[in-house]
Amino acid sequence: MNVRRRLISATAVTAATALGLGALSACSSDSAATGNTDKFDVVASFYPMAFLAEQIGGDHANVTSLTEPGQEPHDLEISTKQRAQLEEADAALFLKGLQPAVDEAVSQTGIKTKIDAATLTTLEDHGGTEHAHEGEEGHAEEGNAEEEEHARDPHIWLDPVKYAEVAEGVGKAFEKADPDHAADYKKNTAALVKKLNGLNGDFENGLKNTKTKVFFTNHAAFSYLAERYGLTQEAISGLDPESEPSAARVKELQQEAKADGVTTVFYETLVSDKTAKTLAKDAKLKTDVLDPLEGITDKSRGDDYFQVMEANLKALQAALGAK
């Protein structure tokens, strides 16, 4: 797919990774007694990982998220209490490269089951326009690492197909780590994958026939989604939703909006809409929310991953002129 993007500096990539705000899911809590329960204790790095752990773990898992509501995932600093939680946990589920502090903390713990979601599907190099995935590859449980040569885009959870692949890997890791409940983990994983496949079908059918295939976003978080469904993502200001586009960039996007029939500039629930509104005003476009799902808050258009993704689909259908 022709997903056009602007190249930005590595510095901008690093700085802008902090923009997403993570949230604990409803039944997770940083204050939960991880490692001291009779359940399978899982420490997850941020919302998309915690959601998987809860869906797959079901009644057998006690899931704690390291990233609380209002925290920026990339800038997360691990507290002494959280390090203790990691040491006591039965498993750690994280996405290597997104949160350096988590990567370091997990690598330093003696936790037996280390599940790196980045190793459970194929991450792509999106030209440096995404949050950098400058990590290492390794086996999910053992955490054996091999240095990667290129930056990789970590936004795999925004592609239901890739997210389902990660879910399958997490399920297998849970089965291995807690064999007494393997049958339930397998069943829960199958149910989750079925729902994700259904979501993929909704996106495929919902975005099949549209007036335009181009959408504008504050920053380039939706490359996997765009490629999956034959769309073209245009990021206004690279990765930084807080920065205003240059006059030249605004002019360029105004011309593109007319040429490609773009109607809407998307911004995110958890960051300022200033950039989007600046462009929208100058280019006479609408604004709407497209949620990168790095966290759930009371501002989110839904209470969980599936509800917010369905809201994203509706927003895209409206903006692209779905028939």
Verbal overview:
With 323 residues, the protein is an alpha/beta fold. The protein is 39% helix and 12% strand. It has ten helices and ten strands. A four-stranded parallel beta sheet has the order 2-1-3-4, with helices on both faces. A four-stranded parallel beta sheet has the order 8-7-9-10, sandwiched between helices. Helix 4 links the parallel strand 3 (91-94) and strand 4 (113-116). It is globular. It starts with 9 loop residues before the first helix and ends with a helix. Mean pLDDT is 82; it is low at 1-34 and 128-149.
Summarize the entry for a quick read.
The protein has 323 residues and is α/β, with parallel strands linked by helices. It has helices spanning 10-16, 47-57, 80-88, 100-108, 160-177, 182-206, 223-228, 247-260, 274-283, 305-320; strands at 40-44, 61-65, 91-94, 113-116, 136-137, 146-147, 214-217, 232-235, 264-267, 286-289.
The fraction of residues in strands falls at 5-15%
**Share of helical residues:** 25-40%
Biggest sheet character: 4 strands, parallel
Structural class: alpha/beta
Poorly predicted parts: 1-34, 128-149
Separate helix tally: 10
End-to-end span in angstroms?
21 Å
Radius of gyration: 19 Å
